[in-house]
Amino acid sequence: MSEHHHHHDVSGKNLFITIILNVIITVSQIVGGIMSGSLALLSDAMHNFSDVLALVIAYAANRLSARPNTLDKTFGYKRAEILAALFNASVLIGIAVFLIVEAFHKFYHPEAVNSVWVIGLGLLSIVLNAASVLLVKDDAHENMNIKAAYLHLLTDVMTSVAVVGGGLLMYYFGLFWIDPLISVIIALYLIWASIGLIKESSAILMQFTPADIDMDTLIQAIESEPTIENVHHIHLWKLDDHRIHLEAHLDFKEDLPLSASNAVTETLEKKLHDTFDIEHTTFQCEFERDDNKEVIA
Q1: Cα–Cα distance for residue pair 60/130, rounded to 1 Å
Q2: Contact, 84 vs 71, CB < 8 A?
Q3: Which segments of 37-79 does DSSP mark as H helices, in order?
Q4: Residue 151 confidence (pLDDT)
Q5: Residue 114: phi, psi to the nearest 5?
Q6: Whole-prediction pTM value?
Q7: Cα–Cα distance measured from residue 43 to residue 46, given in angstroms and rounded to the nearest whole number
Q8: What is the dihedral of CA 94, 96, 97, 98, to 10 degrees?
Q9: Which of 35, 89, 147, 272 could form a disulfide with 278, with the two C-beta atoms 3.0–4.6 Å apart?
Q10: What per-residue string of b and e applies to 239-253 under the rule 16 or more CB within 10 Å gives b?
Q11: Range(s) for CATH 1.20.1510.10 in the chain?
């Protein structure tokens, strides 16, 4: 049995600053959206409010997942971050559907929009969200949970650019139908950005085989050991977005003493860690046992 830990600590200070910045954006855009009559601005405000929730949940989940394992929680809270990522991505899709419904309502009942508010607050959102993106960028590379929050922020920069562009078109050309159109574009982008995260986090929670590991190649690596006749009853899954676990039955060609079989499993553990980044292995060593020899039993 082998396990190598490399939990990635998220910068609490950076996340806290990012939360404050997004609270400022949200409040200002809600006020501005009501004052100007802009659905695009209110859409952006809702997106920013979801950022605040996403960041708070991301921070709490990261701290929770770092808590030690106990006798009644042998895996600890390692999947708290995966649940947070799934929740945040699902919230984004829910918001997107709401925005599409509201946008179509406004297409049929167009209203004049005070575009000065839209342009000014859109620019404020671009600046503060860009700062937020830079604050959490490094952590997003290492952590699915923070990646979900990072995607929230990154899409906000892009949607705010669209909001400003729409504000300029309304200001100079009076094209008020641009406002709900931008809302629909924002919503479609939110759905597109969230689906990948939902698939990835769901695959971990369902204990699917990691997508980047080819099972046939893994089996060949195990059965290439001279003393191994067969590997069966394989279970391969990800505990979180870093830790990969493997358990399997090993059929030995000879009735080896325990010390010799230990040497073989230690060699296998190192090979599998170095080749497939598998961090935790549990092998059941067998010789001439009458059981099902299928790979997946």
Answers
A1: 23
A2: no
A3: 39-65
A4: 77
A5: -80, 95
A6: 0.73
A7: 5
A8: 90
A9: 272
A10: bbbbbbbbebbbbbe
A11: 12-205
Provide the token pair at 19.
């939360």
Q: Pick from 215, 220, 225: which is nearest to 246 by CA?
A: 215
Q: What are phi and psi of 70, to 5 degrees?
A: -135, 175
The span from the CA of 2 to the CA of 86, in Å, is 29
Q: What is the pLDDT of residues 64-119, one digit of tens each?
A: 877 888 888 888 888 887 888 788 788 878 888 888 888 888 888 777 788 899 89
Q: What six digits make up the tokens of 170?
A: 């309304």
CA angle 292, 296, 297 (to 5 degrees): 40
Spatial neighbors of 81 by CB under 8 A, at least 6 apart, are: 58, 61, 62, 64, 65, 143, 144, 145, 240, 241
Residue spans of beta strands (DSSP E) within the chain? 228-238, 244-252, 278-286
Report the candidate in 285, 218, 216 with the shortest Cα–Cα distance to residue 245: 218
Residue 52 has a CB neighbour count (10 Å cut-off) of 19
Fold of 215-286: Alpha-Beta Plaits (3.30.70)
Residue 251, C-beta contacts closer than 8 angstroms, at least 6 positions apart: 228, 229, 230, 231, 232, 286, 287, 289, 293
Distance CA 146, CA 12 (A): 12
Beta carbons of 283 and 263 less than 8 angstroms apart:
no
Q: How far is 169 from 51, CA to CA, in rounded Å?
A: 27
Residues of the chain where predicted confidence (pLDDT) is lower than 70: 1-12, 144-145
